[in-house]
Amino acid sequence: MLKGWFVAGALAATAIGVVGVVRYTSRSERERERYEGREEREHEDEEENERFERPKPDSRLRHAGTHRAGPLELATRNRMGALESTKLQLQLAQGQIAKPSVPATAWVSLGPTDAPQQFNYYTIDSVDSGRPTSILVDPRDANVAYVATSGGGVWKTFDFLAHEPIWLPTTDTLPNLAAGAIALDAAHPDTIYLGSGDFIDGSGNTMFKSTNGGGTWSPAVVLEGMYPNQVKAVVSSINQIQVAGDVVWVATDAGLFRSSDAGATYALVDLPEAAGTVAETIWSIVPIGGGGWVASGVGACSVSSPAPGAFGLSDPNPQQGCPLGTNAKFWRTDDGTTWTEVTALPQTTGTNRTMLAVGPTTNPATTVVYAFVGDLFGSSTLGYWRSKDGGRTWTQLPGALANPTLVDPNQDDTCIDLNVGHEQSWYNQAIVVDPTNADHVLVGGNLCGVRTLNGTADVPVWENVSHWLPGTGYGETAGGRLSYVHADWHTATSIAINGAVRTIVGSDGGVFVSTNVFTAAKPEQVVWKHHNKGLATHLFYSVVSGDPATGNPFVLYGGLQDNGTRFRASPDNPSGFNQAVGGDGIGGTLHTGQDGTTYWASIQFQWAYCKPAVTDCSVEQPEAQSEEESHWHRAPSPVGLEPEQVQARAYERLKRFGEDDQAPFLVHYSNVETDTVGQSVLTHTDEQVFVAVPAGDGFTWKSISQDLTSSQVGAGISNITASRATPGLYGAVGLVSAEPFYVTTAGNTKVNWTVAQPVRVNGARLTGASSIDFPPTLEPGQQPGQVYIGAFTGTLNSPSRPPPPDELGRLWRTTDGGQTWTSIVGSDPARRLPNVPIYVVKYDPITASTIYAGTDLGVYITLDGGATWDRMGTGFPMVPVRDMYVARNQDFIRVATYGRGVWEIYPSAGAHHGAPGNGDYDQNLQLDWIDLGAMAARQGVTPEQTVAPLYSWIMDITGNSSNPVQAIDAEDLSAFLAKFGGHP
């Protein structure tokens, strides 16, 4: 691909200590306009057009892929989620039909379940999935394993030791699929504890429990507490869980919680500190044997400050209001009751996030504990500490990397020292110890995994054992080429099976397993295998679809968090998606005009295009050495700057207005469908809106709006859309609540766009505008641009930052060009749009009274212009929906979810088979008589059927031809009967 295309696997945060970071517990202080909507601020960084080269790790902030809720808002979300979860489970149990929008009523999962070709400059012999947060293996049976993911809930397999395990979702009906951590009771391994709230991708503060291995789950238990100094523990993420019988420990961003009654109730534990009662963020807690534990965390700035939270990285400077600093702290207990602070540390200042791991725990007095230590600002790895006395005293582990990647002649400086977290040690920390040998330690950061086989030695030897992008002249050491593990390590576990150790890693690319990481004679001989086929946990930002009207309905692709841009590859494998563009795939669209079709995709900083009439856009030419060899090409930056320049400008804006990229470097597009002749596609920076202009074989950009960043309130643009029916009618979403939307009727002519008035609720402004759309038809007397709808993800800008009232919600309509607004969430509480963040809103392209909303809890539909709302279709998980495409003739709807891949409702019997079902209709992880009845009743059913029993993708187990279609038939029944009485 073209030179300078930085295909990223790393998520760095070099500016984090300079500009500060959101502290969720202190959002009430952010009342001024310039601090509003931080969750939705989106900046684009650009590069000029030149040939692609081998990828390099990028440097950027990594923030939430979904809206992160403050305490008042999280309480509302929990309430909404519980109500909708109950409805969904009742619907499943009774076979109720949700409101359809098209003749089909059942959603179909499209995966991705496979990656026939995975490209990231090199061809990667792997399949990636979404980001795991915890990995468990049943101590009774190593074939039984669980993976908790940051957006897709908990998945289980009953054949983990197989080459390609079969993965099953276990939490699709729970109210929050942002799984922060899971743990099991070793004495009763079917008892699983799940904590909602990932420290990056989705907030949560609830605990769930299953006593049947994930078949069913208890109602949520909220974690809340008060420190003795009256500082409230406001939980928004759960970082780690440990279980010892009826005692459950939960490490959260607001402190350590303990349950003594097997998860029925939880209480905040006030850990002792020399400064007095100080709130903490707890990152890790590990057992040392004999009922003893060691915990690591970060203390608050002062005795009156809230817990620092996941991003509470503050300079310990009294003049900056942080006299105590936010440095790493350790505590230990011998009995699980009385804790003491550990002060014998190698370094007491300049530290922050720290993760712990232990080896064998047969003797608590000599248990070896290791710590992965990040620096104060999370911008580098300070090193690794070790305790040989159960966490009482600690030493810094010296040593150097014995096999660095080759800078000369390969120019690969990605893994040359023990700073494995590089500039994002706040984000990437994984550490695990061989359960049979305390000398064996594995650590992972953002690009490489590193082992030592003599960790208890005075000077351990450290060795690279994996690389994020091994290829020709890359990922190579003097001893050979390293094995692939996707970048950005987050969790790791190691188990002993009949004396053999099996080590499992979770990174931004999913699950990777090695059986020889601690036994290979040479580190370059360590082999890693992925276990990601069928694990449809991908974090999609966007969905791009072809259309029956343009003759390309099979075309489907989208941008994913750190998993590139993925294209559905072939009708023969309809849930297999190639990765044609690497890094963070973000926005995309396609445009068809008389002069051809162009596909658009993106990566942080950059805009890219491909012309399917010229080449196969679903694949890329590995290691392309010329523009002609590449399938995808870069469009120039709309503002003509290098990425470093745009990034520097973004940081300046951040310091000035308090804005940062909560979703990393989002590049948005909008297809101008009304341009049936040319190639009009809209994009934007945070300053202006641009339209694509053909230039030779490529494109340039033309500005068509005013520069909005000259506003003193820091106004700017975060999203765009073009009317599907009215030529020249475009809309943009604003960054701040004072100017939530902008509209033009002048099309590709540069004018000053009309600014909408803010949406006001009880005198406060609604923040976090996210999406805008125009109706397909107008009432008599209405003019283009007068009527449109606007969606929001944020809160009110009053001091306590509350969510809007349920009866007003986050979806509004104007009929006078944005001068006044009316809520359209519905008046009947039983049929009201849930009061949760809305990421995308779309009018039906034919019927103006039909509107679709992609929310934090799934897809909702109104057929009467917003008077009443219903959950749309059947079989859709409780997952955030980031993007949506509605076919021009209403033939199908496709959505991008942040954690469960891509889905569609498609009414045709000839629709392509999606992801294979597993036959478990009631989703209890058993193929029983209920499932058999569901299968038998559905013989011959297709998505076209609109009377019960309805089509269910879960019962559509097999494809019935080389070009499989959606239909439940005898082959599905045979496949079901072969497993009847067992697990899916």
Brief account:
With 984 residues, the chain is mostly beta strands.
Give, in spatial order, the strands making up the sheet with the most strands: 1-64-63-62
Largest sheet: 4 strands, antiparallel
| β-strand number | 64
- What is the end-to-end distance? 41 Å
Number of distinct helices:
5
Radius of gyration: 27 Å
Helix content: under 10%
Low-confidence stretches: 1-55, 659-664
Shape verdict: globular
Strand content: 25-35%
Query: What's the pLDDT, averaged over the residues?
Result: 89
Structure classification:
mainly beta
Polypeptide structure, described:
Helix content is 6%, strand content 31%. It is mostly beta strands. It contains five helices and 64 strands. Mean pLDDT is 89; it is low at 1-55 and 659-664.
What labels would you give this structure?
984 residues, mainly beta, 4-stranded antiparallel β-sheet, 5 helices, 6% helix, 31% strand, disordered N terminus
Summarize the SSE layout with pairings:
Elements: H1 16-19, H2 71-94, E1 108-109, E2 119-120, E3 122-123, E4 132-137, E5 145-149, E6 153-157, E7 167-169, E8 179-185, E9 188-196, E10 206-210, E11 221-222, E12 225-226, E13 232-233, E14 238-244, E15 247-252, E16 255-259, E17 267-269, E18 280-289, E19 292-299, E20 328-333, E21 339-342, E22 351-358, E23 369-375, E24 381-387, E25 395-396, E26 430-433, E27 441-444, E28 448-452, E29 462-467, E30 476-477, E31 480-481, E32 489-497, E33 500-507, E34 510-514, E35 529-530, E36 544-545, E37 556-559, E38 565-570, E39 573-581, E40 589-593, E41 596-603, E42 606-610, E43 633-635, H3 643-657, E44 669-671, E45 681-684, E46 689-695, E47 698-703, E48 717-722, E49 730-734, E50 741-744, E51 754-755, E52 760-761, E53 764-765, E54 769-773, E55 788-792, E56 811-814, E57 822-823, E58 838-843, E59 851-855, E60 858-862, E61 870-871, E62 881-886, E63 893-897, E64 902-905, H4 929-937, H5 970-979
Antiparallel strand pairs: 1-64, 2-3, 4-5, 5-6, 6-7, 8-9, 9-10, 10-11, 12-13, 14-15, 15-16, 16-17, 18-19, 19-20, 20-21, 22-23, 23-24, 24-25, 26-27, 27-28, 28-29, 30-31, 32-33, 33-34, 34-35, 36-37, 37-38, 38-39, 40-41, 41-42, 42-43, 44-45, 45-46, 46-47, 48-49, 49-50, 50-51, 52-53, 54-55, 55-56, ...
